[in-house]
Amino acid sequence: MTVLTSSPSPLLSKALEMKKLFHQGITSLNHLKHLHCHLLRLNLHQDNYLLNMLLKSAFNLTHPNYPTLIFTQTRQPNIFLYNTVIRGLVCHDHFDLSLHFFHAMRKESFTPNSFTFPFVLKACARILDSKLGVLVHGLVVKVGYEYDVFVNTGLVCLYAKCGFLDSAIKVFDQMPEKNVVSWTAMISGSIGAGRLREAVAMFRRLLGAGSAFEFEILGGITLLARIRAFEMVKGSELDDLIGVGFSLGPLIKAILPSKPRSLNKDARQRSSLSIVYNGACCCAQTTGGS
To answer: Does 8 fall in a domain?
Structure first.
């Protein structure tokens, strides 16, 4: 019995060839432009899948004006292209322009997803646009991403950076899963609001979480240096926690759990103690301690 198989169309074959070229990697801007010209010659410059690969590479290799121009010439962009452009612009600190494309995406009736919201929220936070951030929060709930860890982290960072610490705490406490970024945003936000005891309490909560967080967050121990530098809270509580003059011994004693879990048995934990040492030295320099 003979099985008849149809060969792929010439256009499909060309598209598959271009896909293979993109997957091989783009090594330079000239290489990127060569592939772009190849797309134009093959009449594949409106293929959203190939365009998405082109845009990602363009944002990595050159000024965002080039990929943005490519995007604006796309006749029917999909949600993936919008997400790529928004992400690329945010990564290049073009926050207002990224929000412009977010609004354009909404006008086209596209529903944002878990790849859209974190970057839109970051843009809102960086330009302190709390009004838009609140509207985006409402949209997050409406479309069902209120339990996404990365979206929630974006909300925590937004509210903390804009000075709405109570809103940040509310989102943070309702998060089923927390990451280092959300913990750090809460600690930094508490410090920035002058709520230093809450910052200390949050840091202690982090160390008591019984996870790998402590080994990552200790690299950012200069947060505690900021607490001492504020000179806003006096008394034995902070003195006991931080140590007079930020001397190294009291600081390490204060921030580490009273009974570290096998601190001398695990290579990663020993490495973390080195991070603590370096961070504490930085604290001493920051506050002028000995």
So the answer is: no
